[in-house]
Amino acid sequence: MYLEMKVVAIKKMDLPLVKEAEGEREFRVEVDILSRLDHPNLVSLMGYCADGKNRFLVYEYMPKGNLQDHLNGIGEPITEWPLRLKVALGSAKGLAYLHSGSAVGIPIIHRDLKSTNILLTANFEAKISDFGLAKLMPEGKEAYVTAKVLGTFGYFDPEYASTGKLTLQSDVYAFGVVLLELLTGRRAVDLSQRPNDQSLVLQVRNTLNDRKKLRKVIDPELSRNSYTLESVAMFANLASRCVRPDSTERPSMEECIRELQLILRTNSKGLSMALHKLGLN
C-alpha cells in the first residue's frame, strides 16, 4: 500500500461559551462553501473535524504565508512590480469566481477580504482564504441586509457600514484596499497615525490620480527598474475607483481582471521599450 505524505495547514476554531453559536455558524459556513468551490485562486479545503468544543479545518499548505507579511517586512519582500500585479490579478480572479455564482448557482460575498486572507504559493500564486463570514447572495437580489456589520476595520465598505446593506461591491471596496497595500507597502490601518490619517484609503485617496503626488506614495521597496509610471498610474486609478464611497461607481471584479491584464501588458511593453532605447535587448 502506498501512503502519500502531504504537508497541510490546520486552522483551529475554538467555540467560546459567550459566542458558541456564532463560532459554530462560521465553522459550518466555511465547510459548506469551501467544499463546493473549485478554483486555482481559492484555497482548497482538504478535510475538517469536530471534536467537543474544538473545530478543525484542514487546508492545502501555502508555503509563502500571507500577503501582508510580505508587504510589511515579516516575509520575503515582493520587490518586483510584475509579481505584485500577479498577486492582484490572481486575487481578482478568485473573487470574480465567487461573484459569478458558478460554484453554487448564486453569487457568494466573501465579506472579509484582506491582505492576511490572501495566501501565496511557492510561485506567488494568490489564493483567497477564510470564508467564515461569507454570505450567499439571496436569489434575484442585489443586496443582503444584515443586522450586524461584520468584517475587518480598514477594509469595510463605508456604504455597508452605514446601511447594513451587503453587496458584491462591498468585496470590490476591500479589494481596492488590497490594491493600495500592494501599491504603497503600507498597512490598511496604521494606529500610530493621527485618527484622521489611520486609514490608508484616507491617506492616499487625493493622490491616486495626480501623477506628481503619486510618486510619493509608491512603495520605496519596489525595484525601480521593475515598473513604469504609466502602469503604476493605471493601477492607482483602478484602486481609486474600487474604493469610491458610492458603490455604484465601483467596477465589477470582471472589469478589474481586464484592467489588471492590460496593466501587466502595459508595464511589460514599457520596460521592453526602455531596454531597447538603452540597447540592452
From TrEMBL:
Keywords: ATP-binding, Cell membrane, Kinase, Membrane, Nucleotide-binding, Phosphoprotein, Serine/threonine-protein kinase, Transferase. GO terms for molecular function: ATP binding; protein serine/threonine kinase activity. SUPFAM superfamilies: Protein kinase-like (PK-like). Its main location: membrane. It is found in: Cell membrane. It holds the Pfam family Pkinase. GO terms for cellular component: plasma membrane. It catalyses: L-seryl-[protein] + ATP = O-phospho-L-seryl-[protein] + ADP + H(+); L-threonyl-[protein] + ATP = O-phospho-L-threonyl-[protein] + ADP + H(+). Its EC number is 2.7.11.1. Residues 1-264 form the Protein kinase domain. The keyword Chloroplast does not apply. This is non-specific serine/threonine protein kinase. It comes from Punica granatum. The gene is LOC116199880.
